[in-house]
Write a structure and sequence with these properties.
Chain lengths: ~350, ~350
């Protein structure tokens, strides 16, 4: 027997902002497991800004997606049939085999999710890669100290919203930028930012001066471009910049000039540190323990923007670049019911 | 009685490349010391690229020079008369009161040079600020480890030539760039660089690929601009960039865009660290001990480009930006004779 599935493949490499034409939804059939295999039904999948980089054919920290092949990315599912000694029917699993409804696996790259401390989808967000990115970016790359002044860009997003709240837990003064008045209100009222602003209105540097008269100790950069330049101009001596992402530049069709004031880093003794979450795998246990307790205590709140059905995945992905999401963008693929 | 002296003052702020018209040589008379004062004759003075930044009226790590006032900078001299309990006639002293032949002081900011371990002028170069900048930039900001691959730009200059030799002492593979074939030969033959190239010929990135097929662990940046962009493109994972200077940009009349590939720092986990020598004052004792022994052993060699007479100081300074110097640019002001 086989199971009917659907998958999204990369039809062609996007130029500039991705469009529907860059993706193709196909039907596939997945065999029943043979000995040593599991059949997994994905329940939800992640779309993340870093995937845009993998759609370009260039050397990077992860190899590029191939045209004509099914995309990959974080996904959570349940084992529906198992002939594998380490997995049982009903196990929750996480994998990098998103962008598809079902898959067959020998278990490589698939790990069981046990002792869930939050709703399942949170393991794509606050308890997963984006949450850990916020945690290691602030405390690892950014070397945040209690009581400092921190600026987070893209602060209503999956990473930024968590970074800001961690900084508040560390008794910091926290500034955040986002696009549009609703998100700005959310930063202030829901996530507890001390100063939040709409980067589309007014000068970013003037906002920073208003929100942090004495300058910034740490800047958590999700955006790049003007945000980074303004932050450099407002850093205090020995400030640290955690370079996490540059979403303002991911769809650029020409190389984007870097900050024109980078030489200020010399006299100020600034450190700019690029990182991805896997560089700080040694902090995983600390992250899981801290974040689970913060969520349980209500000290960290999180939002999700959920779209339904695999056919929505390209829209969900494109929406990351138009600001369609508040918090983590999730694509729900199936209900979590026993088969 | 008074002593006739000459001083150089900043006549106007340079726009772009500094010219003679930006400086003025004036005659001054210096009084005999009163109680608690010393009269110092400067023997030699330093011109350094960082001084260009101080000629601009903007906030920086040192306050700007004032128009119409005598310039300042590193200088070495001898006490010619003393009514100060801590100084005696004949003492060698260092101060920041360069750009003048004589000065009167109450001792503030003037320190005795005792137990000289190298010729006097070396204390403006290899044993002084530029030598220590090379040392702390590599070992402090750059966190150099034995056996790594290092690229030094501006490698024939006062800082770069020492940085390259320190890296060789640490068993590193060392690449260096300089302007013109004579300097390139010097890097290779005198300072022991493994690969030296003329940045004016060919692509910097291609030179780096030829000289270090497997990439760079550390880049010591004296130059900024294209050099920095090419180095970022060729860094290995977790590479470190010590931002020391950006001489290619100091005379720019418009803001200079930063490297257009700074986002590569994210996936590679690169660290860019700006610094000035005073950020690492805690390493001073180590520096003095190590450098004195390396010079004594012949493991560190140094060159000086010497110009004679205070009237040459503006030319010496301007020459820093046209590549007129090999090693440390020194202005000799007087012979070291007893009066």
């Amino acid at each position: 027997m086989t199971t009917k599935s659907r998958e999204v493949l990369l039809k062609k490499r996007p130029v500039g902002m991705p469009t529907h034409d860059d993706f193709e939804l196909i039907e596939a059939s997945v065999d029943d497991p043979a000995d040593g295999q599991i059949l997994v039904q994905n329940l939800c999948m992640s779309v993340d800004p870093y995937m845009r980089g993998r759609m370009v054919d260039r050397k990077s920290y992860t190899p590029p997606f191939k045209v004509g092949e099914t995309l990959t990315g974080g996904a959570l599912g349940r084992v529906r049939a198992s002939l594998h000694p380490k997995f049982s029917e009903g196990d929750y699993v996480q994998s990098n085999l998103g962008w598809r409804e079902w898959f067959l696996s020998d278990g490589a790259g698939v790990s069981k999710l046990e002792g869930l401390q939050a709703p399942l989808s949170a393991y794509l967000g606050v308890m997963g890669m984006p949450g850990m990115t916020a945690y290691v970016g602030l405390l690892g790359a950014g070397e945040l100290k209690d009581g400092e002044t921190v600026f987070v860009s893209g602060a209503a997003g999956a990473v930024g919203s968590i970074a800001g709240q961690i900084a508040k837990i560390k008794d910091c003064r926290v500034l955040g930028s986002a696009g549009g008045p609703e998100k700005v209100s959310l930063l202030r009222d829901e996530f507890g930012f001390d100063y939040a602003f709409d980067y589309r209105k007014g000068s970013i540097l003037e906002h920073l001066m208003e929100g942090a008269r004495d300058g910034l100790d740490v800047y958590f950069d999700n955006v790049g471009g003007e945000h980074l330049q303004a932050a450099i101009a407002h850093m205090r001596p020995f400030g640290r910049i955690a370079l996490c992402g540059a979403i303002s530049q991911y769809n650029a069709t020409e190389p984007v000039p870097g900050p024109n004031n980078l030489t200020m880093a010399i006299g100020l003794g600034l450190t700019l540190k690029g990182f991805i979450v896997s560089h700080f795998n040694h902090m995983r246990e600390d992250f899981v323990r801290d974040m689970a307790s913060w969520i349980a205590d209500g000290r960290v709140k999180y939002r999700e923007t959920v779209m339904h059905g695999l056919e929505q995945a390209p829209d969900a992905f494109i929406g990351l670049f138009t600001g369609a999401n508040v918090g983590k963008m999730i694509v729900q693929l199936a209900d979590d019911r026993a088969e």
